[in-house]
Design brief:
about 200 residues; 4-stranded antiparallel β-sheet
């Protein structure tokens, strides 16, 4: 007995050198283990085909095609702050390490396309339902207490919002009256929706 499950679960490999396969028998990509580096920010595309992970220090991007069983590491894409996808899953939008540039990544051939620069620095991005618009903000990426929101009510960075269209390279930036707590797109008309926080005494 080799310890493999007998319930139909695919053998996903192990120390005995087995090949990793999915339910269709396709070999899964081997990301390797560079010097025991940790994998971070694993993100799956909406269609479930592509897995994007950052690995090592600095954390550099690897794109795995789970359908074809291949993995590619585009040059120079390290320390990415945020990854978002077009709804069809074929394109990823990357907020680069600087926080001031958004790059378009065509996942089929792992090719970096248009890059759009902003005036301000950002930490997160959201993609519109049609994939044509990207909204950038500095909403917290970890849970905050109400006190933290209150103390940062007037923080210029948290009040800043950018809306850009990667296809045309146009970008518009504005400042909201109070710090943003969350940003999303309306599924009805694609409008950018923002929730702000203010000091209780205001």
């Amino acid at each position: 007995d080799d310890g493999a499950p007998d319930d139909g679960t695919p053998d996903i490999g192990g120390d005995d050198g087995d090949v990793n396969v999915n339910d269709d028998g396709v070999e899964l990509p081997d990301f390797g283990d560079p010097a025991g580096a940790e994998f971070t920010d694993a993100v799956l595309s909406p269609d479930g085909r592509y897995l994007l992970v950052q690995v090592g220090e600095p954390a550099c991007l690897t794109v795995a095609d789970l359908q074809e069983g291949t993995a590619s590491a585009p040059q120079g894409l390290c320390g990415i702050r945020w990854i978002g996808f077009a709804p069809h899953g074929a394109v990823a939008y990357l907020l680069l390490a600087s926080g001031t540039t958004v790059a378009t990544l065509e996942l089929a051939d792992v090719a970096v396309g248009a890059e759009v620069d902003t005036l301000g620095e950002y930490t997160t991005l959201d993609v519109s339902p049609d994939g044509a618009t990207v909204a950038l903000s500095n909403v917290p990426t970890t849970p905050w207490t109400e006190s933290e929101y209150e103390w940062n009510t007037a923080d210029p960075g948290m009040r800043r919002l950018a809306v850009l269209r990667p296809e045309t390279g146009t970008v518009a930036e504005l400042s909201t009256p109070f710090a943003l707590r969350d940003v999303a797109f309306s599924p009805v008309d694609g409008a950018v929706l923002g929730v702000s926080s203010r000091w209780k005494g205001d």
